[in-house]
Amino acid sequence: MGDDGTTYGMDEALVSMGFGKFQGLILAYAGMGWISEAMEMMLLSFVGPAVQSEWGLSSHEQSFITSAVFAGMLVGAYSWGIVSDSHGRRKGFLITALITSVAGFLSAFAPNYTSLIILRCLVGVGLGGGPVLSSWFLEFIPAPKRGTWMVVYSAFWTLGTIFEASLAWIIMPKLGWRWLLVLSSLPSFMLLLFYNVVPESPRYLCMKKVRTTEAFQILEKVARVNQTKLPPGMLVSDQDTGNSFPTENTVLLSEEDNEADKVENIEPKVEGFKSVLILLSPKLLKSTLLLWIIFFGSAFSYYGLVLLTSELSRGHKNCSPNAVVLEKKEDANLYRNVFITSLAELPGLLLSAATVDRIGRKLSMSSMFFLCFFCLLPLLYQQHELLTTTLLFVARICITGSFTIVYVYAPEIYPTSVRTTGVGVASSVGRIGGMLCPLVAVGLMHACHQTMSIILFEIVIFFSGFCVFLFPLETSGRELRDTLCYKGGPTMVA
Predict the structure, then answer these.
(1) Residue 231 has what DSSP assignment?
(2) Residue closest to 397 by CA, chosen among 389, 386, 409
(3) Each residue of 176-189: pLDDT tens digit?
(4) C-alpha distances in angstroms, 211 versus 200, 208, 327, 461?
(5) Under a CB-based contact definition with an 8 Å cutoff, are residues 394 and 460 in contact?
(6) DSSP secondary-structure letter at 196?
(7) Nearest residue to 89 via CA among 416, 360, 410
(8) H/E element, 42
(9) What's the confidence (pLDDT) of residue 369?
(10) Are the beta carbons of 85 and 125 closer than 8 angstroms?
């Protein structure tokens, strides 16, 4: 690792090697996990109505199928974040892929409503590990283009939603919802198939100090595959280099103040509930609470729009005097409109990719939230089908863009020692929003209360956009930290 006395940190190593073939392979693996989660979530738009019709369920029972998945994700997102911060990223996403694939496959053979709810809840527990894969991929990316590559990673979610909508359009009319569940579980099995060849995050290993040699060996492999070289010297962790990563909110101290202030590093080995306490420490409390609000609003709005598209495409059959005529058209409208609005995620990704590094995370997120707000205003009252689909298409563009950037921003504000726990807990809060949105998108729509449903969406979206402005820092171009550094007095805002 070099014996000339010079040292270098993880960010220096990644910048020196650049984004090459090795990161491309990492992107493909993590992207497969994102495709899997997108497919398992999107199928709820099709399975819910089909099961309701086949088993004679009430609207509340249909809504609970979706809510059960989010309830499982609430547990999983918190649990797998702690597991991956304590025992490694690889162990975290191994367990999640195993649970998702097995429970997803068995869901297709559910004999009754109760067993389907239990199995879909288990699928949700597995899907809760999504932030582990995103954090794992993030830790391989050089800082200068981190935002852009995280948006590219998010494109796999869009591919999953479009593929699922296409699959449902082909499979559901001929083979039914059970075959859709079987085919949608296959991407999770792909993660298990290639698990043995994927490496642990070198940043995680380096943060553990005693595993720096393992981290160096992985970086050597990255450099070899990318046909580049590591910096000269010895690899050391952030806490050994003394980096404190100033931000736009850092107050510069005089030399005397620096000598007087004692630097205290949070112990990098944090486990269980201790890591959650760090998220609520004075230096992270404001960012953590705001992130929870925005994850809640993003999940509520995104999944709500997906389900709202499904409900509006069914033609308000319960509220219309032409129920018999509309019932014949509803299935065709459902598959077509969900497919069309899923395509909106492509321009949503392009929009987020174009803005995330140029104008920053905060301005990008807030502007998209507010544009989504204005797109939904005309839907306070029932509109023509073409106008409704168009408005939902543009709203889906905006909420996809903002949700994508939230997943870029969230892991950047936390140190490596609690990164996946921080994103996992925030994602868990988002799952609460996902649990509640079916009650709005499905429950109120079934009760013919479209105006009240849209008003609730508007309140959540507007408040989320406002909270973005309150974040204490912009992370665009900012290096990732391995530990949280305290300095005497409120001089560092994390």
Answers:
(1) P
(2) 389
(3) 889 999 998 888 88
(4) 11, 6, 62, 44
(5) no
(6) G
(7) 416
(8) helix 21-42
(9) 93
(10) no
Answer with the residue of higher pLDDT: 274 or 397: 397
Q: How many helices (H) and strands (E) does the chain have?
A: 23, 4
Return the DSSP state at 472.
Answer: S
pLDDT of residue 368: 92
Return the pLDDT at 491: 31
- Tell me which residue has tokens 């544009």: 371
Task: Give the integer Cα–Cα distance in Å for 301 and 457.
Answer: 6
Token pair 């820092």 is at which residue?
Answer: 473
pLDDT value for 446? 67
Give CA–CA dist 138/411, Å, rounded. 8
Report the SS3 class of residue 485. Answer: strand
CA dist 18 and 30 (Å) reads: 19
Token duo for residue 238: 């952030």
Cβ of 157: how many Cβ atoms within 10 Å? 25
- Count Cβ atoms below 10 Å from residue 18 Cβ, excluding itself: 16
The label of the residue with tokens 């994850």 reads 295
Quote the CA–CA distance of 347 and 390 in Å, as a whole number.
14
- In this structure, the strands spanning 485-486 and 264-265 are antiparallel
Residues 37, 99 contacting (CB under 8 angstroms): no
pLDDT one-digit tens code per residue, 273-306: 576 677 777 888 888 899 999 999 988 888 788 7
Please tell me which residue, 51 or 421, carries the higher pLDDT value. 51
Residue 113 is which amino acid? Y
pTM of the model: 0.68
**For residues 156, 64, 402 and 77, what is the CA-based torsion angle, rounded to 10 degrees?**
-70
Q: Where are the alpha helices (DSSP H) in 43-140?
A: 44-55, 59-87, 89-107, 113-127, 130-138
The dihedrals phi and psi of 109, each to the nearest 5 degrees, come to -105, 15
Mean pLDDT of 62-81: 79
- DSSP conformation class of 264: E
Taking the C-alpha atoms of residue 68 and residue 98, their distance in angstroms, rounded to an integer, is 19
Mean predicted confidence (pLDDT) in 92-120: 89
